[in-house]
Amino acid sequence: MLVASIVLAICALASPAGAVASDPLAGRGMWIWYLSASNHGRPGSIVASARRYGISTVIIKSGDGTTFWSQFNTRLVSRLRAGGLRVCAWQYVYGRHPVAEASIGAAAVRDGANCLVVDAEGEYQGRYIQAQTYFRSLRRLVGATYPVAFAGLPYVDYHPGFPYSVFLGPGGAQYNAPQMYWIDIGTSVGQVFAHTYAFNVPYGRPIAPIGQLYGKPTISQIVRFRALSRLYGAAGVSWWDWAWAGATRTGWRSVSRPVGSLGALRSILVAAIRRRARGDLVVWAQEHLISAGYRIPVDGAFGPETVAAVKGFQRRHGLSADGVVGGETWRALLRYPTALVRWTRRGARIASAAGSSLTMPVPQSASLPGRRNEIAPVGRADGVDG
Hints:
Layout: E1 2-8, H1 10-13, E2 27-32, H2 43-53, E3 57-64, E4 67-68, H3 74-82, E5 86-93, H4 98-110, E6 115-120, H5 128-142, E7 148-151, H6 164-167, E8 175-176, H7 182-185, H8 189-200, E9 210-212, H9 219-231, E10 236-240, H10 242-247, H11 251-256, E11 268-273, H12 280-291, H13 304-316, H14 327-333, E12 341-344, E13 358-361
Parallel strand pairs: 2-3, 2-10, 3-5, 5-6, 6-7, 7-8, 9-10, 12-13
Antiparallel strand pairs: 1-11, 3-4
């Protein structure tokens, strides 16, 4: 099982591995699903509202699967950018046609998007090959350094078969924007931060939380979400979504009012994995153990070979050899690069030295069912955006 482990300084693990110099999600961001439902789609009005409420980035839907949304276009992007806004495109992806989905994302980049946000959720469960195909295709089209963010379901432990390690791994997204909708999840603002960060920090990407304006959050909840994002070291926070901000009395006011300091956060609880754990976080640890020189399968199952490798690694690094990848072991392990694994439906077990390119079958953990979707489908039937 996966459990919370020892306290660990945030900066020790959340280094921006592969991140570009300028974070496109820094500051306040606002998501736009249907442009027509956001200030009636008028760019000048959107710019005026953004200035009034301190919004620096708008994240506008540009595609759904293999369909490009014409609301995202060069003219719109140019007008919003001329008004001082960063404009990111976001696409929802399903994994059925990953090469075509990558071309839809690249089209928005050609239209001038400052970044691309990839929204991948339950449909990508178990689809390691498709996730890798998507990013390999996307990177060929937009380049290795173009800023991409992954907006996924926040509770990694609820989705053991989801390829987080591909979306946030080498050649994947440089930024992690989890959908931390605490009301939908049925928890508090504080708990959504603690749980999300515990399981996302090990992936080593800067975290840009997405908060919710739908579902009738209170002003105090929204203000606390903003304060905690600062406390946890996030460079920016964004909100779902523009239409809801305008549909409630509290939306715009609560995302723009001054936020006091909650003090200093020295450490967080980071998820630990141990014998019999299964899931993508195990895949992630195994990929790093390979780079550290241990010849083990990357199967997402914390079995005897992985336990032995972890104990050997711990002894080599002067750590307690308990076979548990907890805070200190994560910190040491993540100093090694991620092994470059090419996922296939068929492949050999590891037969190469650390640092070599590997061909592996999809991990056993990819077939694990999700615990549940912690977030209900957002906005599909809320009557505001549609």
